[in-house]
Amino acid sequence: CETCSKEEAKYRCPRCMKYSCSLLCVKKHKLALSCNGVRDKTAFVSVNEFTDLNLLSDYRFLEDVGRTADAAARHCIVHSPATKRLLYCLRNKARGCNIELKTLPVGFTKRRENSTTFNAVENKFYWHLKLIFPHCHAEYTLKGVPDDKTLADILKPYIDPVESDPVVYQRLKIYTASPQSDVRILMKIENRSRNSVRYNELDASRSLLDNLKGKVIIEYPTLFVVLKTLKNDMVVLGQDGSEPAENSDSESSSLSSVEEGEIRDST
């Protein structure tokens, strides 16, 4: 058992392949790793390990995607004038702030989750925001975040040694125990090929709106909170948008699995 290291393992998690000996250890491993226990139908499989079962799984997955897309196209809300006006208003207001906001078809997870609104009286966005802490395998969803709030204030309830919630503090201990100067906030650059994933580093002292200007957002912002002292495989572009030199210190995190899961979940 990879949880208690005492008993002989009887179960293997379909999601993360961790061995467990009992229901209690299964629950513990799910809580510790934020694992839902559901098999990832689109997990990478090398050619050498690819079998007829993998082929059948892929075929069924594509059938499920086809059914979901067809059901979404038939959904009445797709043709609702009010829905179209709301989305047009959001995209238009974002364009006025130099933000390219893109929305997904009905049926996609991010479209269903998104709660972003624009207050015409205050002339302010209230964003749906997702925070991902890859070093702790944790993520949090925030709703109604005003666009004039700084990123530092947004992160205070999570990684501030004094103001953070005690439960969150324990879960994100690697962040709260590190100097605040080591914390980096990254956001994925959209419209790039899968084999060329790049990230922009955001300024924690500036507002959410200022950080989103000039960027492409699909439904809502997803921010990755990483520590520069931990090596990782994320490539961060320079301030001028150029690729970093190979021998330079590039800060990123081992987020491939987190992000793959997010993309597949949306699909």
Report the sheet-strand fraction: 15-25%
CATH fold name of the largest domain: Ubiquitin-like (UB roll)
What is the number of E strands? 10
The SSE order reads EEHHHEHEEEHHHEEHEEH
CA-atom Rg in angstroms: 21 Å
Number of domains: 2
The separation of the N and C termini measures: 33 Å
**Main sheet properties:** 6 strands, mixed
Class by SSE composition? alpha+beta
The low-confidence parts are 245-267
3D shape = globular
CATH architecture call of the largest domain: Roll
Query: Tally the helices: what do you get?
Result: 9
**What is the averaged pLDDT score?**
80
Query: CATH class of the largest domain, please?
Result: Alpha Beta
| CATH homologous superfamily assignment of the largest domain | Phosphatidylinositol 3-kinase Catalytic Subunit, Chain A, domain 1
Please give the share of residues in helix: 25-40%
